């Protein structure tokens, strides 16, 4: 036949497609695609928007979206660049200085901020000590707000004046909450907030003084990214965003993000399976049509082109509708969850919809290619001899392409090569290994079957007749169960991890500056109020000055964790026993046989790494004007997330006792004990009580959102999985309907047909479950090990998967092929 | 005189269509004695297959009744009718209708097993021997020619020793030579086993091998011949 112009082929294809659609031929493939695209779009939007929302919450810990910090003022172009990009800007200068009043002096952490501060989160204050908190903007020029402990230390009340350097400021309010200091409850000095305009007049900030300059930025993600790229950082400067800003939030967010990505990947995998199943059916049902077209003179390529175009048209239509459905679904979801979510949730942009559509199209192309290629090879003789099937192709190549496509989508979605490889590789290896085993198992089943009862023989005969197809189906169902089990498994694991991190009665208060004289009385009072207060830790402020005789400043690089640790006083402590949640990773805890003439010190492992410390190194501290030397005797891992007093340096007992010491502890107090707290602070005026409830609340609310997200994503994956299961069953429906009608005509009762189906699908489900159990363990091992940084343990409950699979697939199988049971036996007469 | 095995009284079948209700079978009655044979002929769309379906209990009439081996089919539900079919009825179809997932022997065993016979295998083997397929017991339908498939179908139809055998265009998909041999086989076995045969066919020659012949046109009985 002469060359068919593309437009003719296109119109032929679209007409054919419409006819097929009218005849109900495309339902399964269309439906599978729709689910695939809708599920990945909805999950994409959900996780993207929720992630943005969570990041937004997390930005409160920075008081900005992005923070530029340095020990010298920022260059003018660093500020003008941000402003040109349309970013909102606030300026902040932080330093330590002495605050003086008539009653005395007190070292304070001072923040001088302009009126725009904070750009994210809220500033809270009270009109008087222990009054109710109010939200509002910061102090005006000439005014200052101070924390309660500064008021107590200097015996002040609101309205009194203090001096900061050369400037006199009126203390107008009690500062109760600084968003960007919420996590920093180890700081020993009280905070004072003043206006930036008064800074010059204090005369405190001189060249060379120890000051932190901060430029705060807020704006669109694109503009922020441009800002990141557009500016050059001086060696003493660095940029922080929400993920760097806070340890607890950072790790929770990181895991949540990975989890949501994983769930999207699972949805994509399921989608791929669904499309593969139905595309194969699409092709099989077109063998006759293809042969006929070839007989009518269409060339192989033209026939192939015609079907490809049909598929493409179908794919684009389904993708568009699916993306719309997915978008609507997540909209409805956010609407439902309105009360639980932050008020401001970014709309999510177009990207998740495009990714969802691309997912559908690439999966369609990847998985429909092999059967489509087969269509082109249908010999025209099939018109006369129906048993002629297309010659087999080098399917490996084509399936390889499909896998590659899938891998690309997964990688693009997660931007995480490890995760993609773990999932795809684990899945593939499992599939190949167990698919082979399954095939062998089915073959040996044939021998055992001879003596089985009729329903079993009918049911299993169906499986054994096409062992390859049965193995494929079992693999497909296995993948579905695997994906669902894996997502459920990880959900439980992540939630447990977070629950451990933030138990209900996590300490929500810190008590600092407990004087030795008050120690026992305070501890006794605390025992009455709080169920499990942490022990009282002695604290001596001291600074690390030398390592092995060399000044620390020459050793440590700027802006490393080590630098931050040494530029301020550390809380030095001593302890008889290793504190709870501390984990010794090198050296020994104190033994009687300490051979060194110097006392030992145990160093936190991350700091040790940053300062390049090893066992036996000699450290010199400046403590209250005196020098104290110690030898590194052990390294400890510390769980900084546990809201207990934690220390970088723990000394051997008896080393620091002669120095002026105060005590530190943390404890849990139920929120309604507010009054007792005020009494406690009045009974021990020198003690500083720090509430971290706000921080805990903030963390809890973020974790609650993450949990919610995870549960909903799980629901989506489950729904997608079940839908795919039914789509897979649909693929074999034609054959079953015919068989059902014939058996009915021959006198078989419904009961027998149901029994046969149960036997068939039960066995299929059990083998799928077995497959899923193996695969799930393998992949979870890889993921825990390499992606989530969790300790892996075997999950015995996975052994239930074969049973669950048998029940699930058995039930779904009987339900999904109901039509084949209820079919009128009369249809056998009509088939002819 | 043998007793009546199949009685139809005033059978009508009405189906809905886009232009209202369509009567495809009009008030048809007939009675068949045990061991007899009846051919139903008529052009396409004359209602032959509809009548066959009603007589065999595959479908229910809109009005009228069918009594098959003493069972009034209208008073039975689908499962009960299935039991009647299992006990009393055999089928031969134009398109053979063998189960692809079962081999020849298993296909023939099927109706025996549905009835719960313990010697199904032996009886199926004997029947396949009888239809000349003793050497192809383990072959699957795909591996058999059309004529061979129809032989398996005939063996299956007679396996449970049905009282009535319904054959719907049994030679329709076969060449004339093979068709001839298949119809010979059908009549031979029918005689041997003493079954009642109800045959739907286009083929006048085949029809005239039956004891009685009815002709349908537009759902009406137009001719009733008892040679």
From TrEMBL, chain A:
Residues 262-373, 712-825 form the ABC3 transporter permease C-terminal domain. GO terms for cellular component: plasma membrane. Keywords: Cell membrane, Membrane, Transmembrane, Transmembrane helix. It is a multi-pass membrane protein. Coiled coil: none annotated. Its main location: membrane. It is found in: Cell membrane. The chain crosses the membrane at residues 28-48, 259-283, 304-329, 349-375, 396-413, 419-442, 463-490, 708-729, 761-784, 796-816. Signal peptide: none annotated. This is ABC transport system permease protein. It comes from the Bacteria. The lineage of its organism: Bacteria, Pseudomonadati, Pseudomonadota, Gammaproteobacteria, Pseudomonadales.
Automatic annotation (TrEMBL), chain B:
GO terms for cellular component: plasma membrane; transmembrane transporter complex. Gene3D superfamilies: P-loop containing nucleotide triphosphate hydrolases (3.40.50.300). It is found in: Cell inner membrane. GO terms for molecular function: ATP binding; ATP hydrolysis activity; transmembrane transporter activity. It is a multi-pass membrane protein. Transmembrane segments: none annotated. It holds the Pfam family ABC_tran. Its main location: membrane. Belongs to the ABC transporter superfamily. Macrolide exporter (TC 3.A.1.122) family. This is ABC transport system ATP-binding protein.
């Amino acid at each position: 036949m002469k060359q068919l112009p593309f437009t003719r082929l296109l119109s032929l294809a679209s007409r054919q497609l419409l006819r097929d659609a009218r005849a109900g031929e495309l339902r399964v493939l269309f439906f599978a695609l729709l689910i695939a695209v809708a599920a990945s779009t909805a999950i994409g939007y959900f996780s993207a928007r929720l992630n943005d929302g969570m990041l937004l919450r997390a930005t409160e810990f920075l008081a900005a979206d992005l923070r530029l910090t340095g020990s010298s003022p920022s260059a003018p172009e660093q500020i003008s660049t941000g402003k040109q990009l349309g970013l909102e800007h606030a300026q902040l200068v932080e330093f330590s200085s002495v605050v003086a009043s008539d009653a005395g002096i007190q070292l304070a952490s001072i923040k001088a901020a302009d009126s725009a501060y904070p750009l994210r989160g809220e500033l809270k204050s009270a009109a008087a000590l222990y009054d109710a908190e109010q939200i509002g903007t910061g102090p005006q020029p000439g005014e200052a707000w101070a924390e309660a402990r500064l008021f107590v230390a200097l015996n002040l009340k609101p309205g009194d004046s203090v001096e900061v350097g050369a400037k006199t400021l009126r203390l107008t309010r009690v500062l109760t909450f600084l968003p960007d200091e919420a996590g920093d409850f180890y700081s020993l000095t009280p905070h004072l907030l003043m206006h930036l305009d008064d800074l010059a007049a204090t005369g405190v900030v001189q060249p060379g003084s120890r000051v932190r300059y901060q430029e705060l930025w807020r704006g669109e993600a694109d503009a922020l990214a441009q800002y990141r790229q557009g500016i050059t950082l001086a060696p003493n400067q660095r940029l922080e965003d929400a993920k760097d800003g806070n340890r607890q939030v950072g790790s929770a967010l990181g895991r949540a993000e990975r989890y949501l990505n994983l769930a999207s990947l699972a949805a994509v995998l399921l989608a791929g399976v669904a499309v593969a199943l139905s595309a194969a059916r699409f092709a099989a049902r077109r063998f006759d049509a293809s042969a006929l077209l070839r007989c009518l003179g269409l060339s192989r390529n033209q026939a192939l082109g015609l079907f490809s175009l049909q598929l493409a048209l179908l794919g684009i239509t389904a993708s568009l509708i699916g993306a719309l459905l997915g978008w609507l679904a997540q909209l409805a979801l956010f609407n439902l969850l309105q009360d639980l979510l932050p008020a401001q949730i970014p709309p999510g942009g177009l990207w998740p919809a495009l990714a969802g559509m691309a997912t559908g199209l690439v999966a369609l192309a990847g998985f429909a290619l092999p059967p489509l290629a087969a269509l082109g090879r249908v010999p025209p003789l099939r018109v006369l001899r129906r048993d002629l099937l297309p010659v087999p192709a080098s399917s490996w190549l084509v399936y390889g392409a499909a896998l590659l496509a899938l891998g690309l989508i997964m990688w693009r979605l997660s931007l995480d090569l490890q995760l993609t490889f773990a999932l795809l590789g684990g899945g593939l290896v499992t599939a190949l290994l167990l698919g082979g085993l399954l095939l062998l198992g089915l073959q040996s089943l044939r021998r055992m079957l001879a003596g089985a009862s009729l329903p079993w023989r009918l049911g299993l005969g169906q499986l054994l007749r096409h062992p390859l197809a049965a193995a494929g189906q079992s693999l497909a169902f296995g993948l579905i169960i695997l994906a669902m089990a894996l997502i459920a498994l990880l959900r439980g694991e992540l939630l447990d991890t977070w629950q451990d991190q933030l138990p209900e009665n996590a300490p929500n208060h810190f008590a600092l500056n407990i004087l030795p004289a008050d120690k026992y009385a305070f501890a006794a009072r605390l025992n009455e109020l709080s169920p499990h207060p942490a022990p009282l830790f002695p604290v001596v402020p001291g600074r690390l000055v030398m390592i092995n005789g060399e000044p620390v400043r020459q050793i440590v690089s700027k802006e490393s964790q080590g630098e931050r640790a040494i530029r301020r006083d550390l809380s030095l402590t001593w302890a008889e026993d290793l504190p709870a949640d501390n984990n010794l990773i090198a050296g020994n805890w104190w033994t009687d046989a300490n051979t060194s003439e110097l006392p030992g010190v145990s160093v936190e492992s991350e700091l040790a790494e940053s300062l390049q410390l090893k066992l036996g190194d000699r450290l010199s501290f400046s403590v209250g004007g005196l020098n104290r030397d110690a030898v590194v005797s052990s390294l400890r891992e510390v769980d900084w997330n546990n809201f207990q007093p934690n220390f970088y340096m723990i000394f051997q007992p008896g080393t620091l006792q002669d120095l002026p010491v105060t005590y530190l502890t943390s404890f849990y107090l139920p929120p309604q004990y507010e009054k007792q707290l005020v009494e406690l602070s009045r009974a021990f005026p020198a003690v500083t009580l720090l509430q971290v409830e706000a921080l805990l609340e903030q963390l809890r609310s973020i974790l609650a959102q993450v949990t919610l997200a995870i549960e909903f994503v799980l629901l989506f994956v489950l729904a997608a999985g079940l839908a795919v299961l039914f789509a897979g069953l649909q693929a074999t429906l034609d054959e079953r309907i015919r068989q059902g009608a014939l058996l009915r005509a021959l006198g078989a009762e419904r009961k027998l047909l149901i029994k046969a189906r149960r036997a068939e699908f039960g066995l299929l489900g059990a083998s799928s479950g077995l497959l899923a159990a193996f695969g799930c363990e393998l992949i979870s091992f890889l993921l825990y090990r390499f992606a989530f940084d969790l300790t892996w343990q075997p999950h015995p409950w996975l052994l239930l998967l074969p049973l669950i699979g048998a029940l699930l697939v058995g039930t779904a199988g009987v339900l999904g092929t109901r039509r084949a049971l209820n079919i009128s036996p009369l249809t056998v007469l009509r088939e002819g | 005189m043998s007793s009546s095995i199949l009685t139809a009284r005033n059978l009508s079948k009405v189906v809905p269509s886009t232009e209202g209700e369509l009567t495809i079978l009009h008030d048809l009655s007939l009675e068949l004695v045990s061991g007899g044979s009846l051919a139903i002929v008529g052009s396409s769309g004359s209602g032959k297959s509809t009548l066959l379906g009603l007589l065999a209990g595959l479908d229910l009439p809109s009005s009228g009744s069918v009594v098959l081996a003493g069972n009034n089919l209208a008073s039975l539900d689908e499962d009960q009718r299935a039991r009647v079919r299992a006990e009393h009825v055999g089928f031969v179809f134009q398109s053979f209708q063998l189960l692809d997932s079962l081999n020849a022997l298993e296909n023939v065993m099927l109706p025996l097993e549905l009835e719960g016979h313990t010697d199904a295998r032996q009886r199926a083997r004997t029947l396949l021997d009888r239809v000349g397929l003793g050497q192809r017991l383990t072959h699957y339908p795909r591996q058999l020619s059309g004529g061979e498939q129809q032989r398996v179908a005939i063996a299956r139809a007679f396996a449970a020793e049905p009282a009535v055998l319904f054959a719907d265009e049994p030679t329709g998909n076969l060449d004339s030579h093979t068709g001839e041999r298949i119809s010979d086989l059908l009549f031979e076995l029918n005689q041997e086993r003493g079954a009642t045969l109800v045959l739907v066919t286009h083929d006048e020659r085949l029809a005239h091998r039956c004891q009685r012949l009815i002709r349908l046109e537009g759902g009406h009985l137009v001719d009733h011949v008892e040679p």
